[in-house]
Amino acid sequence: MLILDCPYCGVKAEETELQAGGEAHLKRYGPGSSDEEFDGYMFMRKNPKGVHFERWRHAYGCGKWFLAARCTATLEVFGTYPAQTSAPPADLQAKIKSKRPNWEGYK
Amino acid sequence: MSNAVSALQGKSAVGFATVTEAGLQGMITLRGDLKSAKLKKAVKSAAGVDVPAARRITLKSGRGAGWMSPDELLILVPYAEARATVEALSKALADDHHLVADVSDARAMFRIKGDKADQVLAKLCPVDLKTLADGELRRTRAAQVAAALWQSDKGEFTLVSFRSVADYVFGALELSARSGSELSAS
Ligand SMILES: [Zn+2]
């Protein structure tokens, strides 16, 4: 079972109170972009076995979207943070790096 | 004027705890900047209480306010006063980005009473009720639908759901409260 702390209301939310929103920190490509760029934005996802950044919505709670870093293999949660950012917080990245020395970064 | 009725008109069921649909209750959704002085003042005069801290609900003689999200409150007033309260809030906040909506007839309220009332909810909600603080408003799900709940008295919880699922919620609460299905003696 996955438990994530909602960074907006502080509730320790259990998986069934949340709605998964897929990979976080996608760069959006819209009108004017090339077919390859749009194709990549639309369809290509990392789907790693290991460190993953995801969007989650506290659906049965405060209703806010937030971001979470977790390990898809062990379900270890590294942290959650508000969605008003284009990159994971530096301290969270450092924490992940110390726990997963081979991690190549979120990009 | 039509004759207003609550979703289940006070329906009640007795098991190891008593489940009752609470009847007509004035409920107002207020969204806006909860930190603004103007909103704080408007809430104080409409609900008689200060804007509650995160995840808290404050009630005082039938009126009050609950924190629903960083930009949303649930204002509780007597049913007959809901419309006037909406007007007063709208007027006070007219110049600010906000939303006020009378949701009294779009919600249903339930009371779960008894020494083991928490067990009725523990079976339906993924919440550790032992850690529920005094005056904490917890939004969660009750079985398969959204709900907000708080401990409204010793041995009494209040739960709010959407009116459209009132019958479902009552059925889930009634089933969960059936005698013989207690989780433990305490
Ligand atoms: Zn939340």
Describe the structure.
The complex is a heterodimer of chains A (107) and B (186). Chain A is an alpha+beta fold and 107 residues long. Chain A has a single domain (3-99), classed as Folate-binding superfamily (Folate-binding fold, 2-Layer Sandwich), CATH 3.30.2270. Helices cover 18% and strands 29% of the residues of chain A. Chain A has two helices and six strands; from the N terminus they run βββαβββα. In chain A, the strands form two sheets. Chain A has a four-stranded antiparallel β-sheet, with helices on one face. A two-stranded antiparallel sheet of chain A has the order 1-2. In chain A, a hairpin with a 5-residue loop joins strand 5 (65-71) and strand 6 (77-82). The two termini of chain A are 27 Å apart. The model of chain A has no long low-confidence stretch (mean pLDDT 96). By secondary structure, chain B is of the alpha+beta class. Chain B folds into two domains: 12-23 and 106-176, 2-Layer Sandwich (Gyrase A, domain 2); 26-104, Alpha-Beta Plaits (2-Layer Sandwich). In chain B, 21% of the residues lie in helices and 33% in strands. Chain B has helices at 37-47, 82-92, 117-122, 166-176, and strands at residues 12-14, 18-21, 26-31, 57-60, 63-69, 72-77, 99-102, 107-113, 138-142, 145-153, 156-162. Chain B has a six-stranded antiparallel β-sheet. A five-stranded antiparallel β-sheet of chain B has the order 4-5-6-3-7, with helices on one face. In chain B, helix 1 packs antiparallel against helix 2. The longest helix of chain B is centred in the N-terminal third of the chain and has 11 residues, at 37-47. Chain B is globular, with a radius of gyration of 17 Å. The mean pLDDT of chain B is 96. The interface between A and B is medium-sized, with 12 and 13 residues. The structure holds zinc ion. Zinc ion binds at residues 6, 8-9, 11, 58, 61-62, 64 of chain A.
